[in-house]
Design brief:
It is built from 15 helices and 22 strands. By secondary structure, the chain is α/β, with parallel strands linked by helices. The chain folds into two domains: 26-252 and 425-441, 3-Layer(aba) Sandwich (Rossmann fold); 255-422, 3-Layer(aba) Sandwich (Rossmann fold). Bound molecules: ribulose-5-phosphate.
Length: 448
């Protein structure tokens, strides 16, 4: 497929990525896109319903799928845009629709930005974001295919955020988006407003670095006149990214151990559990429960009075923490809960043999923690209780498989490290773009 597949609709793209994209030649860039797409297409199996993404990288996936179809693979596709539908039909891929299939097994789509670690996305510079999100929401898995220029540390650094809006009241909707902090402009195409497949318009919104994509997505959606935004939070899994070194498969933190994880953020009082949990919740879009809020009143009164809690005091609290965890598990939702979980026996109660639960241990020196506590106001735990907390602490041992993170860095950096530890990155072929041959088998190797 040609580069510039959606060229007319790209006028809103900011300079950053175009500059980065200027480095490799278009042939090299196409080779990277093709390599990522080829890797993702290996996930398609017989009798699957496959979501077909839009954009130039997804177009390579359609070519590869068509080839596998000609070789005998049976599947049907649901396209995310009229252009993709035309392309897929031309290549002979059998198409279906939601009237026949409510569930999609796997969608393969591109993206405009992929955030390192969280794998949150900005999509929609091609203008297909609404159908892409509908298809993504109905998909069991969503494989994202990109070349390396799309990887960013924070969303919003290279790309503006496309928001699909109804034409009526455009100016009022734009004002509301600007109240959220964006510079918003209507996307144009050859001098006319760009019109989506759904008959709507696009406002390209420049929010700068997006620190809390889940929150921003909700706030944008609440604006009357907005149909959908191009923020895709916690939806990508996996991402195939091709760069000069090869094709890498990035698994999301959410896919950890095959089911939505529930993180127990443990550590003594003052280790920054709540700050870090809030940061994780903002970046991952997972619900956060403040474990301290589950203490019975009598425990809070004791701590206020500087009296250390006993095992018996902590039992009803640990039961409530376990109940919150079990509720998330029953809903098959990820979650984050803070709990000092000082003793191994406590951790037995809240984690036990729940495979979804992952212990995150915030390890910090006593002086550092005392410093945190001295700067904290309005919390019921007086600094004098720190000593008893440290004395009580039984650090998790390797059999508990903790994710141990040393304190000292900022909350954002610690959260980033936890997300990195949760995710998984595997190089599946080296120099794939340079050595790509059609239909070549992928060799799965762990990256060193
Ligand atoms: C279209 C999209 C595309 O997936 C995104 O714009 C990436 O396109 P390309 O692969 O051409 O860079 O979201 O709405």
């Amino acid at each position: 497929m040609r580069q510039g597949y959606f060229r007319n609709s790209r006028e809103g793209r900011r300079g950053g990525r175009d500059v980065m994209n200027a480095a490799p030649s278009s042939d090299d860039q196409d080779a990277l896109k093709r390599a990522a797409a080829e890797a993702a297409v290996q996930l398609v199996e017989n009798d699957m319903v496959v979501g077909l993404g839009s954009g130039s990288t997804a177009a390579f996936a359609i070519e590869a799928l068509a080839r596998r179809h000609r070789q005998g693979l049976r599947f049907v596709g649901i396209p995310t845009s009229e252009r993709t539908a035309t392309h897929a039909k031309a290549t002979g891929i059998p198409l279906t629709s939601f009237s026949e299939h409510r569930q999609i097994d796997l969608t393969i789509d591109g993206a405009d930005e992929v955030e390192h670690g969280t794998l949150n996305l900005i999509k929609g510079l091609g203008g297909a974001l609404l159908r892409e999100k509908i298809v993504a929401a109905a998909s069991h898995r969503r494989a994202i295919v990109v070349d390396g220029s799309k990887m960013v540390d924070r969303l919003g650094t290279q790309s503006s955020l496309p928001v699909e809006v109804v034409a009526f009241g455009l100016e009022a909707t734009r004002d509301s988006l600007e109240v959220l902090g964006a510079g918003a402009r209507a996307r144009m195409s050859s001098g006319d407003p760009f019109v989506t497949d759904n008959g709507n318009l696009i406002l390209d919104c420049d929010f700068g670095r997006i620190n809390d994509p889940a929150h921003l997505e909700k706030r944008i959606r609440r604006i009357v006149g907005v149909v959908e935004s191009g923020l895709f939070v916690s939806r990508a899994d996996p991402v195939f990214v091709a760069d000069a070194a090869g094709v890498h498969r990035l698994d999301s933190a959410r896919a950890h151990r095959g089911s939505p994880p529930i993180l127990v953020i443990m550590g003594v009082s003052g280790s920054g559990k709540s700050t870090i949990a809030e940061e994780l919740s903002a970046r991952l879009g997972w619900p956060f429960e403040e474990g301290d809020s589950l203490h019975p009143e009598s425990n809070i009164a004791k701590m206020h009075a500087g009296i250390p809690l006993t095992d018996a005091d902590r039992l009803p609290w640990l039961d409530r923490v376990a109940a919150w965890i079990d509720e998330q598990r029953s809903k098959k939702q990820p979650g984050i809960i803070t709990c000092s979980a000082l003793k191994r026996a406590y951790r037995q109660i809240i984690i036990g043999d729940r495979p979804e639960v992952r212990l995150v241990y915030l390890r910090g020196g006593r002086d550092l923690i005392a410093e945190h506590l001295a700067g904290r106001h309005g919390h019921f735990m007086p600094p004098a209780l720190l000593r008893s907390q440290i004395d009580t602490l039984e650090e998790p041992d390797p059999s508990e498989d903790p994710l141990t993170v040393d304190l000292g860095a900022s909350g954002a950096q610690v959260a980033h490290e936890i997300i990195r530890l949760l995710g998984n990155s595997v190089t599946i072929s080296r120099g794939a773009a340079a050595h790509h041959t059609e239909g070549a088998g992928m060799h799965w190797r762990n990256s060193a």
